């Protein structure tokens, strides 16, 4: 027997879950109710949410969507999200996941005209098929990538020996004359956060729009013991920083920045060397995920690229969607 429910706040969804999407029962950071609640509260507080649940026996599927209008929904995700997908509970097999997703899609087509989902990785094909079978016109477009490193049992020395010669030579040359010190923290303090913010403000990056979200995430992960907050310092001053989390054998590289005034000494590269070594030899991770974005430097550190997709679904029952759907389909064809 299938049961479907819908929630208009993340708090209501949290109450209905009764802990089933907490850290203890959900391995992925990006599938936890804490993640969705914090992301919405800090980054999308003015936008309503639409959260759908379908239950079949001991299995469930959840869709966490933003609802910028009554006719359009979009994934509850942004640049902090390495990937987005429905969240499945109870370990359903592939066939069950697809069936549950079809039910969710069939519910959405009753009222919604357009849905866009990004960033979607492994489940993009299944989502496309499930929504199409529920009556949606679906378009899939590749939009950037996600860089990964599978260690396959290697220690840091073996991994480092396989890096490009240019990178290894740069680290060796800069380390020989470096005056930087490296420290890696597993918790968050006000002083450390002040250092993080100062480095980011002096970096090449645009002002960080979600500092409150990042701080809450870092504090939460610090309490759980999964935070790895690294700094390169010169005479005590933080000049480069990186925010990682490490959990269940996987390291996630969330943010990095360095003060451009110290580019000549490559503090960011030296800090990366130390962070990778710590994750591999101290935390014994087997996968490192550099997140979204095709920055050229990522290819030097990583070995795999996973394509990320944007999925657009148009409800053909509404004539107003036909032209946008055709334009999107043409855009997908021409790349």
From TrEMBL:
A Pfam entry, by short name: Acetyltransf_6
Residue ranges constituting the BioF2-like acetyltransferase domain according to the UniProt record: 172-298
InterPro entries reported in the protein's UniProt record: Acyl_CoA_acyltransferase, BioF2-like_GNAT_dom
Name of the featured protein: CelD-like protein
Organism of derivation: Sphingobium herbicidovorans (strain ATCC 700291 / DSM 11019 / CCUG 56400 / KCTC 2939 / LMG 18315 / NBRC 16415 / MH)
